[in-house]
Amino acid sequence: MVFPVSEALARRCRESHNLPMANPASYDDAKLILQLYELRRDEKLRKAREWFASHCLASSLEELMRLAPPASQENTYLRMVVGYWEMAASFVTSGVLNEDLFFQNNGELLLVWERIRPVLPDFRAFSKNPGSWRNLETVGNAFIRWMDANEGPEAYARFQETSRGVVTAKPAAAQMGTTATG
Where on the phi/psi map is residue 156: left (φ > 0), alpha (ψ -120 to 50), or beta? Predict the structure, then answer.
């Protein structure tokens, strides 16, 4: 449901920023974004996200299996994080959640996509499931296009560099006696 005052404000914002009028975000979209945020505050998911951001950087399925072997805590973390973002992405691909609002508030999905993308073809072959992580793939690629269109062509390239550097920067910060944030 869209409240008249909120729609009027949204219309003024779209007009002043030359944004398209089609499919404006609704109150329900905002509510779902907040619910997704609340889920990310779960202590177990926080630990999984911390591990993923600081350790999960693999260029092959074999390397990913070394980082997160089956039946390990790391594998559980990997499945929690990728599963969470696959679920969140499914809300966008199914039309339940406004894509633009999602992109404005969920940059972490792009980090997960960047980390999973190199292993996806081999994972699909290994699992014999060509649809594995399809929503994450669809929304991740759309996020890249959105970033190029809304934040400039250099923004995504910089994001890629930063997302690769998160893993290497943490140990360096720890060696200097500082705390790196994830």
Answer: alpha
The two structure tokens encoding residue 101: 């609002």
Quick one: how far is CA 144 from the chain centroid?
Answer: 11
- 98 within 8 A of 68, measured Cβ to Cβ: no
Please choose, from the candidates 26, 20, 23, the residue with its C-alpha nearest in 3D space to the C-alpha of residue 6. Answer: 26
Token pair, residue 83, equals: 């599963």
Distance CA 139, CA 147 (A): 12
With beta carbons less than 8 A apart as the criterion, state whether 166 and 54 touch. Answer: yes
- Dihedral-angle region of residue 119 (phi above 0 means left; psi in -120 to 50 means alpha; beta otherwise): alpha
| Tokens at 109, concatenated | 């999905």
Can you tell me the distance from the alpha carbon of 171 to that of 54, in angstroms, rounded to the nearest whole number? Answer: 9
pLDDT single digits (tens) 99-134: 999 999 999 999 999 999 999 999 999 999 999 999
Q: What is the pTM of this model?
A: 0.79
